[in-house]
Amino acid sequence: MFHEEEKEMVIQSIHNYFLDFFGNSMEYQWMARHYTYSIPRLRNLSSCFDMTIVDLEWEDDENLENFFAYCPVWKCINIYFPCMYDIFTPESKIHLAESVKIHEHFATPILSHFKGKQLVINHTFCKFSELVEFVNKWKSGESFHKLEYLRIQKNLLEFPQTHFFNEIGAKYIPATRIPPIHTLLKVHVEDDRELNTDPIISHAYVVRETDNRVASVMIQGKTMSFGVWDMTEEEFLSMVDYFQIYFVGRIISS
Fold first, then answer.
1. φ and ψ at 172, to 5 degrees?
2. In terms of domain of life, where is this protein from (predicted)?
């Protein structure tokens, strides 16, 4: 508790104490709500942006774009915006954020131009061809060089799993093998306090041509998940063999 006029000094003192005591060994969050509880300028601070728009007739997207244009690059952007048209241009700074979570019906610009690490798109009318194009661009090394994790949830029809895997040239872990679980620490921990991305468990995977990196691909109904491993295909398959031996050994010993 502190007096309002001492707020900036108190927050800076606490922040500097944490930095001096913990150094870079841990992350923590300052939560600001609207303009009432603003955060002063602090050392080693990354900014996250959370916005909910409930007005379906909202037409202030130009101001929103200008807001992103004049701000530094955000670490994380979460936007709930059930609008029936694109609000972000290909040049928007939203594509530069490390992590983006967005609820938008038309997510083509986000999916095509994202340059960050983790992307979640909910309730979108994303086309089948756009997802195939995304995977092929990643495989060729043309785009999405920093991408670690992607999850897309469609509004209507389910993903045609077999057709999709055929179109992206997916490879498969043998059905007799146990697929590894892909999960990562989230760039930004939300109010649900979940520290990790949703697990991806799939026999299907693709390989990037430029460095032989592997990404697991999973289809579950209306949701497509894509997780990049920091290992080559040879290392990935060796890991699969190791876990097979490990789990089989545990079953026999038990």
1. -135, 135
2. Eukaryota
Structure tokens at 160: 């045609």
Number of structural domains found in the chain: 1
Write out the H or E segment, with its range, that includes residue 69: helix 61-70
**pTM of model > 0.90:** no
Phi, psi of 48 (to 5 degrees): -120, 150
Whole-number Å distance between alpha carbons of 193 and 27: 13
Question: What DSSP element (H or E) covers 134?
Answer: helix 128-140
Cα–Cα distances in angstroms (integers) from residue 133 to residues 129, 136, 207, in the given order: 6, 5, 15
Extract the tokens encoding 34. 């609207």
Strand-pair partners of 50: 78
Beta-sheet pairing, 223-232 with 213-220: antiparallel
The Cα–Cα gap between 35 and 38 comes to 6
Establish if 24 belongs to a structural domain: no
Expressed as residue numbers, the domain containing 229 is 29-252
Residue 245: CB atoms within 10 A of its CB come to 9
Q: Is pLDDT above 80 for 61?
A: no
Contacts of 79 (CB under 8 A, 6+ apart): 49, 50, 51, 52, 53, 101, 102, 103, 104
21 lies in some domain: no
Whether 17 is covered by a domain: the verdict is: no
pLDDT digits (tens, 9 = 90+) for 104-158: 666 667 888 899 999 999 878 788 888 999 999 999 999 999 999 999 998 777 8
- The conformation of residue 117, written as its DSSP 8-state character, comes to S
The reply to whether 14 falls in a domain is no
